[in-house]
Amino acid sequence: MVSIDVKIPRKAGFDGSEGPILFVIVKNEHYILPHFLKHYEGLGIRKFVIYDDKSTDSTRDMLRDRDDCLILTSEGNFSDVIGTQSNGTPLRFGPSLKLTIPSMLAKNGWVLTVDADEFLVLPSTFKSIDDLVISLEESGQFYLTAPMVDFYPSRLLDRSFPITLDPFEGAPYFDAGPYYEWPAESDALSPRFLGRGVRVRLLRKLYEHDQEAARKIYGDHPIVASLHKVPLVKNGHGIHYVSDHNINVRPRTELKGFLAHFKFCPNLDEKIEAALASNAYFNNSVEYKFLKAAIDAFERESLISPETRKFGGPQSLVDAGF
């Protein structure tokens, strides 16, 4: 095991005094990063704290001269084991950053923690993230929950759309919800998943198509990645992350956002190759093994189903059951 210390340089305005800060980890995000920055600028984010995990493409060049970006680096690698989680599984450096860096950035401010392929969609009654946090503070809710909604093109083959195309245009479809429900127990920190969404459909299809191949990936217990997240938290009010999806209290959900999740995009093949080479992601990159198998088996088949909806703004998500 190794211990890695990431130092956060002091830079004016990156303490939460100019509104919510966004924290994201990136690695070779040459496709999604320009769209990501534009999207969050449109929501009113003025400060980006970006941990660059040794990108070798043009990612760093895109960020170098931006005054609204604070770039963090270290000598460590995303896959380095730095400890053990409470359930006995290895705690890797990359995921640990999402648990520690947000609380270090703004001691008493709002921090939005997302992945580069996650685009927050605000409830339709809010025009900016500043308006949203005012409403959250007035109600005494110092966090925002969000379902993670996988967006996809009409076929897996169509993931290689032009890199100039916004992901909402290149992958405009999603499956109707809801994807989960909260159990009756008042202290539950995570919801119960309902087996919906395009990745669930693909997983079922893979088992029907080639059970042996699917079992090599998952064994007897297939697991679809969590579709619930708490991306926005205000520090200084006793709220902290216990995982990169959950906080230490059962969240209220009467006011929530949506996370449009763009996994099926032009750089997916690069990400799969890197994930399989490193085994650095959850459960030895099991999700990427599944995605590769699904692409190999169903690349040319339509993803459109009776559950499919097309994005047309926040209300289309509400109308679809979210």
Account of the protein in words:
It is built from 10 helices and 14 strands. The mean pLDDT is 91. The chain is α/β, with parallel strands linked by helices. It has one domain (21-319): Spore Coat Polysaccharide Biosynthesis Protein SpsA, Chain A. The strands form 3 sheets. Strands 1, 2, 3, 6, 7, 8, 9, 12, 13 and 14 form a 10-stranded mixed β-sheet that branches. The chain has a two-stranded antiparallel sheet with strand order 4-5. Strand 2 (47-52), helix 2 and strand 3 form a beta-alpha-beta unit. The protein has helices at 32-43, 59-63, 93-105, 129-138, 167-170, 198-209, 211-218, 268-278, 282-298, 314-319; strands at 21-26, 47-52, 69-72, 81-84, 90-92, 110-113, 118-121, 143-152, 173-175, 180-181, 192-193, 228-234, 258-261, 308-310. Helix 6 (198-209) packs across helix 7 and helix 6 (198-209) packs across helix 9 (282-298).
Provide the fold topology.
Elements: E1 21-26, H1 32-43, E2 47-52, H2 59-63, E3 69-72, E4 81-84, E5 90-92, H3 93-105, E6 110-113, E7 118-121, H4 129-138, E8 143-152, H5 167-170, E9 173-175, E10 180-181, E11 192-193, H6 198-209, H7 211-218, E12 228-234, E13 258-261, H8 268-278, H9 282-298, E14 308-310, H10 314-319
Parallel strand pairs: 1-2, 1-6, 2-3, 8-13
Antiparallel strand pairs: 4-5, 6-12, 7-13, 8-9, 8-12, 9-14, 10-11
Helix pairs in contact: 6-7, 6-9, 7-9, 8-9
Short description:
The protein is an alpha/beta fold and 322 residues long. It has a single domain, classed as Spore Coat Polysaccharide Biosynthesis Protein SpsA, Chain A (Alpha-Beta Complex).
